[in-house]
Design a protein that fits this description.
alpha/beta; five-stranded parallel beta sheet; 16 helices; 12 strands
């Protein structure tokens, strides 16, 4: 299914990773609505499809163009939405998703305040409708773009804006983008008639300072331009407390975003140490904790053995129970990261698929995978608990490295070789250096 729907089985794809947790059955058929979910935030902006269609009818224009977004609207987005509405002589439906989005995204409470500010001050309110969509982003790429278009058709739109890399999940395990920047546009254009939507494609919109205007990058004719990527917004401006330039975003929007800006070295991250039993994960974690606290970070250590005593008490060592244990650790780690702490996880976590599910939970930008690499022979030689010996004698079964496999990480962020002379302290400092390179901790000691 993943291969046919998303074109990949790479577990770095967030929805492919999520699919591994689904059950074996799908349910289809007629639905009977008992009651709709009740929301308590921005209730005046939450409308059913029927309500949206009624409001659009009141605007008095037969054509409606919908704009899907999970990000704040900056000047480039503002320009392309206004152009799209002017092109069709119709109404603009700004229809942001306010369910689960990509880890690290601006929270929807902040985004909605930005949308409201823009609509009230910079859009023609007679020709613009802001309505919230309680939808979770799946980051499914082109096929998700089709889904988004169908949803907006049900809300009364007959035109749909599709920009660059719509619902793109980022890069695969080889570092290449899962989809081309305009793949979603091509797929939607092929199915526009079937959906009943006219697709309005836009290429990357950039600012031309010499003319004080925005233009699609393919129509510049050699003119110099300025652009700021989403990553730069987060990491070079918001994370460093720098003011976003006025050519890029409205000052009132910049002020709202500045209120929730947290320097990158204060944001949350998850450091995941994986390796065989006895490889040295817990020892490295203890040392790394001290080094991180020295630099002013709060650290929560989630050690595999300790977690099994409390959070995962009662679980066995079947593959299903092991996966459950790791996903529980991942869930807790994701919550710690969301609240700007450091989750330092030391668990064997032998399966690549499950590690990638945890990566998707936490968010790739905040996830650091460390392979504590030591051979079975080295781990067995330093095994003070005698667990390897018991596994060899058959007294315990399903023991990683003996009668159960350990899947070496395909693309770890850091590798520590603890069976070839690298000490736990050296390993901890190697990991710290990686965190410093990614600005996840500050360089100076507190």
């Amino acid at each position: 299914e993943a291969r046919h729907v998303f074109g990949t089985t790479d577990m770095r794809h967030p929805l492919v990773a999520e699919m591994a947790t689904w059950g074996p059955w799908y349910i289809s058929g007629a639905l009977k609505v008992l009651h709709l979910p009740k929301h308590f935030s921005f209730t005046h902006l939450r409308r059913t499809p029927q309500h949206v269609r009624r409001e659009l009818t009141r605007k008095g224009r037969p054509d409606v163009v919908a704009f899907q977004t999970r990000n704040p609207i900056h000047r480039a987005h503002e320009e392309l939405t206004k152009r799209a509405a002017a092109e069709i002589g119709g109404t603009l439906l700004i229809h942001p998703v306010v369910g689960l989005t990509k880890p690290g995204d601006v929270d929807y409470y902040t985004r909605v305040r930005c949308y409201q500010t823009l609509v009230e001050n910079y859009y023609d309110r007679e020709r613009t409708l802001l309505s919230l969509l309680p939808l979770a982003m799946r980051m499914g790429g082109p096929r998700e773009a089709i889904w988004h278009a169908i949803i907006r058709r049900n809300h009364g739109a007959n035109h749909f804006i599709v920009g660059r890399d719509h619902a793109g999940p980022g890069k695969d395990s080889t570092g290449k983008p899962f989809y081309g920047p305009y793949e979603a546009q091509q797929l939607l254009l092929a199915h526009a008639g079937e959906i009943g939507m006219r697709i309005i494609p836009f290429e990357e919109m950039v600012y031309v300072p010499s003319e004080n205007r925005y233009q699609e990058v393919t129509k510049l004719n050699g003119a110099e331009y300025l652009a700021i990527s989403g990553t730069e917004v987060r990491e070079e401006y918001l994370a460093k407390g720098r003011q976003l330039p006025e050519w890029f975003t409205r000052p009132k929007v910049a002020a709202i975003l500045a209120e929730i800006s947290i320097p990158k070295h204060k944001q949350g991250c998850c450091i995941w140490l994986t390796g065989l039993s006895g490889a040295g994960k817990s020892t490295i974690a203890d040392i790394l904790t001290v080094l991180l606290m020295e630099r002013g970070r709060q650290v929560t250590v989630l050690d595999g053995d300790v977690v099994r005593t409390h959070l995962s008490k009662g679980l066995g060592f079947s593959k299903e129970d092991r996966d459950t244990n790791i996903l529980r650790i991942g869930f807790v780690a994701a919550e710690i990261v969301r609240h700007h702490g450091i989750a330092l996880c030391a668990a064997i976590s032998p399966y690549e698929e499950t590690r990638n599910q945890v990566r998707a939970m936490v968010g790739g930008d905040a996830f650091v995978l460390v392979h504590v690499n030591a051979s079975v022979e080295a781990c067995e030689a330093r095994d003070t608990k005698g667990m390897y010996a018991k596994a060899r004698r058959g007294e315990i079964t399903g023991f990683t490295g003996v009668d159960d496999p350990y899947e070496v990480p395909a693309v770890p962020d850091v590798v520590c070789h603890t069976d070839s002379g690298e000490t736990p302290e050296e390993c901890a400092r190697t990991i710290l250096a990686h965190l410093l390179d990614r600005d996840l901790v500050r360089g100076d000691r507190i």
